[in-house]
Amino acid sequence: MADNKNQHFVPRVHLRPFTVNGEGLAINLFNLDRMKAIPNAPVRNQCSGDYFYGQNKLLENAINFIEDPYGPIVRHLSDGGAVGSAVKVVLKRFIYLQYLRTEAASLKASEMALALQDVPGSDLPVPTVKEASKEAVQAAMLNYKDTMRIVDDLTLCIARNRSDLPFFTSDDPAILTNRLHIQRPRKGRPSFGVKTAGAIFFLPLSPSLCAILYDGAVYTSGHRAHWIDIDRHQDIEALNAHQVLGCWANVYFREWGDRDTIASQVEAGKPGRPATRQTVTQAVLEKSDDWGEYYAVRKPTDIRNGEKVLVHVATNHPAPSTWPSFLRFRSNAHAYSNDTGAGLTRRWCLEQGFVQGSGYRKISV
């Protein structure tokens, strides 16, 4: 059995730099549902749940193995330390782990599973949302060891905040987005994931530091030894906006005096949050012949018991109104495609077997 009943899906080591006086005990938060700032919330009650990862001690130990170096790395960077190979490995592993394990991520996965229960005539067992969420995040954690290298090719850049506007974090802080997909869409590519070309991750490390992972074949940042200094408010706001767009309910900040500024940023970003996190499409088999099966999209109310149904669940990614000015498209941006629904991917994902299929070729994007 796991030793720690109250398991944090956003670890306290990540929240600590954002806590009051950096002491790790209390933290200021802004709740998006109530549009209200709340001072001095106990950190122990934030982003946690009883046995969120289950009662597998080996799994808990594996998570701690990734978490333990994170705090020292953030302190090292806060002191202006070099971004060496150890820093890159720890941050890439931590960002990907954090992306997989938050409550928001588990709820997204569980909603996909629960969508299958809505098919008329389905006799699949129906778990509660809480049960489905825990099962989803536990499955993701168990899969982590086999997929953690999927982000190894991404370029790491540490944005150093030289403005008077702080970074803040949230209850879903490791944000996956894709400027290529959003600004240069391709027909028939409704969504994107970690293996998609143009992937970008944002993770605030402290009020003055933000880690960025990006596809170096698509973007350039002009960093020097993995550092870039930012003094433009617009760039800080662009990075903070992703926390507002991607969080589940709360954003967290250190200084109570910043609450009005935080409220303004939330107010500006909140309209860009998708109304629903997934779009569920159901299609019914209409005919089959020697060439294959043909399905037609129908409303759930038009589906009869016993019909063969395909269910497609697509994630609705928010589209930010602005992007950091320093993260630009390369003049020779490229990706790999085989002109199928698999979409665009990166060379690394092909070489390492994270993407299956044949006929991939390099294309300009």
Automatic annotation (TrEMBL):
It comes from the Bacteria. This is DUF4238 domain-containing protein. InterPro entries: DUF4238. It comes from Edaphosphingomonas haloaromaticamans.
